[in-house]
Amino acid sequence: MDVIKEDQVLDCTGMLCPMPVVKTTKAMKELQSGQILKMIATDPGAPPDMEAWSRQTGNELLRSTTENGKFVFYLKKK
Amino acid sequence: MSKSDPNAPKRLALIASKGTLDWAYPPFILASAAGAMGWEVGIFFTFYGLTLLKPKLSAAVTPLGNPAMPMKMPFGPEGFQNINWPIPQLIMANVPGFNALATTLMKQTFENKGVATVEELRQMCIDLDVRMIGCQMTMDVFGFKREDFIKECEIGGAATFLEYAADADVQLFI
Predict the structure, then answer these.
(1) For chain B, what is the domain count?
(2) Residues in A touching B38 (Cβ below 8 Å)
(3) What is the C-alpha separation between B105 and A47, in angstroms, rounded?
(4) Rounded to whole angstroms, how far apart are CA atoms A70 and A66?
(5) According to CATH, what is the number of the domain A8-76?
(6) What is the nearest CA distance from B139 to chain A, expressed in angstroms?
(7) pLDDT band at B26 (very low <50, low <70, confident <90, very high)
(8) Within an 8 Å CB–CB cutoff, is residue A14 touching chain B?
């Protein structure tokens, strides 16, 4: 897998719904178009929720994966 | 903005009609999630739900008449925490302070699991420009005044909410 270089990291470890989605939105506001946010979460609801969030907001979910038992998302600001 | 505008964001219209701790969560969770997805959100707070607009929230929860509520302890080993205590309704009703205890236990469990407090969720909704409408009729009935509620809310009636909900993609009564 290609390495994706993120511009910003957001750690939502330990947070439950809807915090990862809300925090991601806040973090994305600080980025420029085309920049990439790496978001880390432990909530098992995060993978389907981040896919829905991506479809609804138009910010591309480049990759949804797991690292060290955590869910990791790479999101590109539209 | 209405749906006649093809570029309008999706809209969520909620009615929050209950003021207990367990029922305070769904409207604020859905509203903040929708706001985070770029949707327009409005919540109409009516009857007991109106108390969720007070500056200081005192939402409590009771297992009385609420038989599906799990009675669990937020401390101790995992096996202990997973026990669902079979406390008869008649006993709960006769123990002074049982509601306060149940409320404390639920708040502690939620904190342990990483759930935001109702206050935090409401603040997130405010930050996401969720429109909050307090029910004028409920204010009149229960003797509330405008200054009893947070400044971020507006006051309106059924027509105010219905006009907003008419153009919504999702409408839910909670």
Answers:
(1) 1
(2) 25, 56-57
(3) 29
(4) 5
(5) 3.30.110.40
(6) 30
(7) very high
(8) yes
